[in-house]
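DM from R.C. (forwarded with permission)

"hey, sorry to bug you on a friday — could you get me a structure for this? deadline for the figure draft is monday and I only need the backbone to look sensible"
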Amino acid sequence: MNKTKICITTLEYPPDIGGVGESVHRIAQMLVSSGYEVHVAVFRSKQRLVDDGSVRRASCKTRFQDGVFVHRIKSSVRDDVQEIQDFFSDIYFQLKLLHHQYNFDLFHAFFLNETGYVTTLLAKETDLPIINSVRGADLHKHIFNPKNHAQIAWVLENSDWVTFVSQDLRKRANAIAPSVKLKSSVFWNSIAPINFTKLCAPPLVPELSGIIIGSSGRFRDKKGIEFLLDACSELIKEIDLTLLLIGNFVEKERKYWQQELKQCCLGSRLRITGITTRQEALAYLPHLDIFTIPSLTDGCPNALLEAMVAGCAIVGTRVDAIGEIIEDGVDGLLVNPGSSTELKTALLSLATQPQLRKQLGAAAKIKAQHKLHPSIEKQNWINIYQQVLTTSATATLPEVSLV
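My reply, with the result:
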């Protein structure tokens, strides 16, 4: 019996660094283990630009990776400036060639603009079902570009199903395309158990002292790190601390963050690891006294789930899945986004109460083990796939004339 063939489109996929790529990889493995044939097509618009003035043909390179067919698509480069419509046209053509070769049964796009638009267009033209998964920045940031609004609204309206990682994201989608409320679901990312005892001690541990406050990820505008810097700059006047940033700032915002770092008063009490492997980033978590995630918006960040599995005492903001997963005073502390004052108060409360840190960290770990286990997310995805495929098959049955 032939396997049902799924084509997932995404902006990134391992070894690319990024939370969306990690999520797509996890979901692809779930689908493979459930008997689906999974294809992942990877492309993003920034790849249409080259720095050395070279030109190239459009291409698609396929690799069989961990049981998944991974297709990395690049658009052509024919002149110094490739217009976005040329990029989308190239990607659409390459994606259509893949469909002709493999005859997919369902398309699934992660991120509404770019991947969602091209994939939904092809799905509608080929009468195949399409699932779109909203991850965060697509509705929190890109929707504010007037050029993207109509495109995103069209994708939402024409999806057979839409998934969200937070209720905040579904509320916004409903405001843009009211039909979404009838064909959508919300569920969190999952996190597999991690054996932290088998991870090697990371290099900066000997340099950390006092109460160790940490955050991890690719630090950019939405992460709220400037408010963490402000809070710790005030907090250091009252307690001995080290702020450890596990990761680095995105390159396009480097000038801004250089200024923020220069203006903060932490000096040698601020440590930044730079880009690390996921294993090294995870290895820092057991050494933290407090993990903080001061995001302004954030979907369902993997960094939060990893900190929970590590049993960290967590301070997060009341946004997206952070505010949904963490119950204030039970398995973490919650503050309002953009408030350095509230952040400082929460950090001081944990810094001066080791028993509370232990209690909240233990509760967060238990919640991760029971409510964020991969088996729960897997069943959610299987239910959605079966429902969409069944509905599509019923809808496309040929009409029968009654005599």
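R.C.: lifesaver. The mean pLDDT is 93.
me: no worries. The first helix runs from residue 19 to 33.
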